[in-house]
Amino acid sequence: MNNASKINTSRSQELFAEAGRLIPGGVNSPVRACGSVGGEPLFIEKADKSLIYDVDGNCYIDYVGSWGPMILGHRHPEVIKALEKVLKTGTSFGAPTSLETELASLVVDMVPSVEKVRMVNSGTEATMSALRLARGFTGRDIIIKFDGCYHGHADTLLVAAGSGVATLGIPGSPGVPDAVIKNTLSIGYNNIDAFTDVMEKMGDKVAAVIVEPVAGNMGMVAPLNGFHEALRELTAKYGALLIFDEVMTGFRVDKGSAQGLLGIMPDISCFGKIIGGGLPVGAYGGRADIMDKIAPVGPVYQAGTLSGNPLAMAAGVATLKEISKPGFYEALDAKTEKLVTGLKKAASDAGIDFCAGHIGSMAGFFFTGGPVNSFDDAKKSDLDRFARFYRGMLTKGVYLAPSQFEALFVSAAHTDEDIDKTVSAASETMKGLV
Ligand code: PMP
């Protein structure tokens, strides 16, 4: 962890230049380009446990965790063992394997509202398919989402979106026809009055309300008391479906996902990230009567050549088994609490406007006094200060997401020493931000 005050990233820079000639922006997902923090991406050579190593030999404590999946840390022995076992048998068959049922059964056991689940390959596919299902099931078109929530890059959902859309300040996206988004309404997160108003006006035309139960794509924003209760009550009243997009929160904030923690039963839930143990997986599941509307049982079509891929299923099964062990979430929660408390103290010692919080091992912070309960609040964060903080932490060996509008993830592999080092890096960095 001896990164000098200015780290050498020359090999990363060469590789980025080379990639830029062949790949748009040099990256296969926009936020990775690090443009909003005034930097260039690090090219990664390897990662192990809580640490990630770039191609120039620098080592960082990793709080990105591949944007959420790596709750066990990198290269967890049980995940590697499961992958090696599958590798001996083949990598894809396009036919059912028992691993798919094993993962489905873990999900159904762990997540309160899920009776049946369909595997896909990404979070985007999960939310896109869940919306088609909701529309097919209800025979209605209108979708309600919330400002600053990101649900993947399907056309219908690229409205007032968070994550990279927020980071890059893109209002919507060219290529998404007005006709496609005219049925998508986006309202303020945590704004119960606005939601009630919309439902009173058009609730009987709404197919689904989709929400990040704990928002993570405008930075981390927790739901206020009563928000999800209002969503559940009013969707039920008007016959609309409630979709929890648990791509980020699923198995992250609690073994039972956000719905387990909040005690809310959505009709459909979407998963990604942790469910694949670091391999590309998404899933959507819910009430059996709804899920049985999907082909081949029902008429709503959704398919996938690589869906249920055995390597991905094996990594998912190994991960869900590990996180089911007693005390797993309590330990993660305690570590994250220690980190967040340390960050807050570092900021207050430096006299910097700052607020931070966490739910389980999903954490977030903003350079504003807060409170941050919505995307409008999140946008009050001092983005220049964030960029300087990000760069300062990087030079001190701490790898954070390169955007204010992303969450921070602690893994089971983070040690107390990692947390202490991170907090002292933050104290030092904050002093330079005043
Ligand atoms: N929903 C949420 C809540 C997400 O955080 C993300 C990705 N960050 C997605 C959907 C899209 O998932 P993917 O990138 O796997 O398509």
Automatic annotation (TrEMBL):
Keywords per UniProt: Aminotransferase, Cytoplasm, Isomerase, Porphyrin biosynthesis, Pyridoxal phosphate, Transferase
Known catalytic reactions: (S)-4-amino-5-oxopentanoate = 5-aminolevulinate
GO cellular component, one term: cytoplasm
EC number: 5.4.3.8
Subcellular location field: Cytoplasm
Metabolic or biological pathway: Porphyrin-containing compound metabolism; protoporphyrin-IX biosynthesis; 5-aminolevulinate from L-glutamyl-tRNA(Glu): step 2/2
Cofactor(s) it depends on: pyridoxal 5'-phosphate
Stored Pfam families: Aminotran_3
Biological processes per GO annotation: protoporphyrinogen IX biosynthetic process
InterPro entries associated with the record: 4pyrrol_synth_GluAld_NH2Trfase, Aminotrans_3, Aminotrans_3_PPA_site, PyrdxlP-dep_Trfase, PyrdxlP-dep_Trfase_major, PyrdxlP-dep_Trfase_small
List of residues that carry N6-(pyridoxal phosphate)lysine: 273
GO MF term list: glutamate-1-semialdehyde 2,1-aminomutase activity; pyridoxal phosphate binding; transaminase activity
Family: Belongs to the class-III pyridoxal-phosphate-dependent aminotransferase family. HemL subfamily.
Assembly with partners or alone: Homodimer.
Protein name: Glutamate-1-semialdehyde 2,1-aminomutase
